[in-house]
Q: What sequence folds into this?
């Protein structure tokens, strides 16, 4: 079965600084997709960024970028110029190539200090 | 369309009672998923539907749990004879499978129903 591991339960970053959240996964599939979701306190989860495993180029969405290392099965999220609104739980998620269920990590709570 | 909606947002019940939650997906989405999230953990898959067909159920979904999507639109999740261990956030998500890549991979989540079993 696929597993997703987030080894950092909580992290803190100073406003305007850069922070990297780690994620590793285990799979035997060759076709899959990786996601980072953000869950603000008492609010619903929203997609931050996605990466298709067949693409070598790392995905970027404004201040958010990923470092996708397929051989190492690593998928980290970098947040540049951190803002107070970035404070939330961040979940790494894996989905196989069959459009079915997601496997989520246990999450990393990001605190942003003013 | 404002996204995936779930009702109720909060439910407090006594052990042994039955509860039912509702999820209304984004209208053009034909896939609907249920997840359970306990405090400090990521969501865990429970079941999913493609249109009205329930295609997969997790081992987490005991016999006390049943989900339906009768007309391929909204879905209900019922828990019978609730136990304290059922206390969790129940999340619903929907997606529109299309060509690989792009926005079709994303699952859109609702705000969840928080269940507390006393």
A:
């Amino acid at each position: 079965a696929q597993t997703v591991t987030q080894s950092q339960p909580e992290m803190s970053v100073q406003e305007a600084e850069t922070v990297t959240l780690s994620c590793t996964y285990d799979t035997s599939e060759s076709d899959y997709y990786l996601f980072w979701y953000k869950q603000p306190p008492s609010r619903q989860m929203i997609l931050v960024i996605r990466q298709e495993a067949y693409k070598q180029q790392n995905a970027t969405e404004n201040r958010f970028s990923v470092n996708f290392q397929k051989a190492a099965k690593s998928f980290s999220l970098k947040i540049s110029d951190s803002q107070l609104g970035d404070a939330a739980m961040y979940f790494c998620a894996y989905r196989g190539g069959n459009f079915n269920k997601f496997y989520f990590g246990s999450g990393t709570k990001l605190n942003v200090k003013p | 369309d404002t996204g995936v909606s779930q009702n109720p947002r909060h439910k407090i019940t006594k052990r042994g009672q039955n509860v039912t939650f509702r999820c209304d997906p984004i209208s053009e989405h034909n896939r609907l998923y249920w997840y359970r999230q306990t405090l400090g953990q990521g969501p865990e898959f429970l079941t999913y539907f493609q249109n009205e067909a329930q295609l997969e159920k997790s081992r987490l979904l005991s016999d006390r749990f049943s989900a339906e999507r009768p007309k391929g639109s909204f879905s209900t999740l019922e828990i019978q004879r609730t136990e304290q261990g059922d206390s969790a956030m129940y999340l619903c998500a929907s997606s529109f499978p299309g060509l690989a890549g792009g926005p079709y991979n994303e699952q859109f989540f609702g705000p969840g129903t928080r269940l507390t079993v006393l």
In short: The interface with chain A takes residues 3-4, 31, 33, 35, 40-45, 48, 55-56, 91, 93, 95, 97, 100-101, 104-112 of chain B (CB under 8 Å).
